[in-house]
Amino acid sequence: MRNDTPSHYSGTTRFLHWAMSLLIILQFMKLGDRINDGEHWVGQNIVPWHISVGALIFVLALLRLWWALRQRPHRPQPEAMPALVRLGHNLLYACMLLLPITGICTMLGGGYGLTVFGINLVAETEVEIPWLAAIGNLHSYIAWTFVALVIGHIAAALFHHFVRRDRTLRRMLGS
After folding, report:
1. Three-state secondary-structure class, residue 144
2. Residues in domain Cytochrome b561 bacterial/Ni-hydrogenase (predicted)?
């Protein structure tokens, strides 16, 4: 595995970024479940995978966090407002980790059990665990915060590309 350099991100970094981006877009489609009580194509075909994709994102987020910490000395550094850039990225990572954790709390706290990619990890008990369900109640709030952060992240990348005309977006695209 090649390391990041001050001028570009490695293939590993780019793969983790874009793979997780696609999975996160799938997760955002869960918002479509709120339309017509999920009685449409998205609600019937994508939403049932929400828990499994969330578990995959959690594993990839841990891997990505480990990789980012390992690459920290090599990475391109933000030119403008580095403290704000770090805060934004840290909040994105926090959401990528907290969303699956609170999702698991929702499932277990409600007694629903936990099945990931068809593998039953925790059996359904139908016994509610109030303190765990209370933590799970944060899931939706964190999800909406994450949506706002992702929109801000995309807007910042586009601002760098089209207004500042720097290499920020190109480094993540590999060009």
Report:
1. helix
2. 8-174
